[in-house]
Here is the input.
Amino acid sequence: MPLRDLLRSARPRQWIKNILLIAPSLTSGVLPEPRPAARLVVAFVAFSLTASGVYFINDVRDADHDREHPTKRLRPVAARALTPRLAIAVGALLVATGLLLGLSIRLGSVIGVYAAVSLAYCFLLRNLVVTDLLAVASGFPLRVIAGGQATGATVSFWLLVTTCAGSLFVVTGKRYSEAVVFGAAKVRIRPSLSRYRVVHLRLAWLCSVAVAMTAYAIWAFGEGNAFSAMSLIPFALALLRYMEAINGARAAYPEDLVQKDRTLQALGMTWLGIFAARGFA
Here is the structure.
């Protein structure tokens, strides 16, 4: 059992999602002091460990379906490089450690809800139409809420609406891409796709991105400062870029898309730079 298989099952590339923890601090224009910043680091580790633990357990649950997938069949559990018993043991340990870290910085309730919803999705919610999409999308706003609690920064209502709509945009875009790419094989690879029509998934991501754009614009102009208003430009362009990827059925793996698309990265860095400049202004 090489350490490499354990690391692959932990999916560290997914940890990029935890960058949302810094959103409340950045958008409030206040860079965290050393103590809140340290809590933010602990929150990042806690979410990363909890998410990785869920991935181990989910891989055991999905092993049979993953073996039908062109790339997921190479996952250690699906490829039988890791035994289900070991994967569950490691997963449980990681989830417990993440919860303990969360408790140490008074984020136990948020991380607990995240773990509960994620595990419920593994065993039950994935079979419920629409609820499965909401369950997956819920992880993003929970990270934003945790970031606000960790640093004491205020989480704007409209910013939270943006996060909720944006996360649903990413999730429905992922399902749409999977449905288009896998075609007739989609039911064997992801059974839940049998309950969705491609046209309905397309409508879902179009509606979600419209709500995200509108909510962000309301927040940006409502803040009453040039930095927030300017941030609408890279935000809108990033959404349009991501829409292009979904429309081309290239968003089945959002983390890969974000890590490989230089345009998305440049827009993200521009957005971060605007708020970093506001913090030092």
The mean pLDDT is 90. The first helix runs from residue 3 to 10. Residues 1-153 form a domain with the Tetracycline Repressor; domain 2 fold (CATH 1.10.357.140).
